[in-house]
Amino acid sequence: MSDESVQSYSNHARWLAPWHFFAIPVLLSNIVVELVRFVRAPSLPAAWVAIVAIALLTGLMCARWMPLRVQDRLIRLEETLRLERLLPDRAREVEHLTRDQLIGVRFASDAEVPHLLDRMVSGELVRRSDVKRAVQHWRADHQRI
């Protein structure tokens, strides 16, 4: 396994360069440019172009946000099934985990899941990032959106 494929808390964030470093900055810049044009020379066409610029960014952000929510639902389902398989006698505790806790624990190895579940149920690990930071033996997920 190459170093690039080894995943950890510090390198697991997924950056899609064309989206994060090109499309979003260009669309944000376009909004600023069009709002400045409208302020300098107010007119109905200038207002309309500024509104369309805002709508374009909003629409594309929603188009990105929706698959991420579906991915979160799938992860929640996968992890619920995994935890119920690993810890059948603790199914009631698993039912009460939050979406963020389930998303965070997906990176944990099977061996460390019981300890992490104890910490999540006790309220020590509440946020997704807390759970991820607590993972000692990282289970990589290279298929995220």
Q: How many β-strand runs?
A: 0
Structural class: mainly alpha
- How many angstroms does the end-to-end distance come to? 22 Å
Number of H- or I-type helical stretches: 6
Radius of gyration: 21 Å
Q: How many domains in all?
A: 1
How would you spell out the order of helices and strands?
HHHHHH
Overall body shape = elongated
**Helix coverage percent of residues?**
55-70%
Low-confidence stretches: none
- Proportion of residues in extended strands: under 5%
Mean pLDDT over all positions = 90
Major sheet attributes: none
Key phrases:
145 residues; mainly alpha; 0% strand; elongated
Task: Produce the secondary structure layout.
Layout: H1 17-40, H2 44-86, H3 91-95, H4 99-105, H5 113-121, H6 128-134
What does this structure look like?
- The chain is an all-alpha fold and 145 residues long.
- It has one domain (16-134).
- 14% of the residues are buried.
- 66% of the residues lie in helices and 0% in strands.
- The protein contains 6 helices and no strands.
- It has helices at 17-40, 44-86, 91-95, 99-105, 113-121, 128-134.
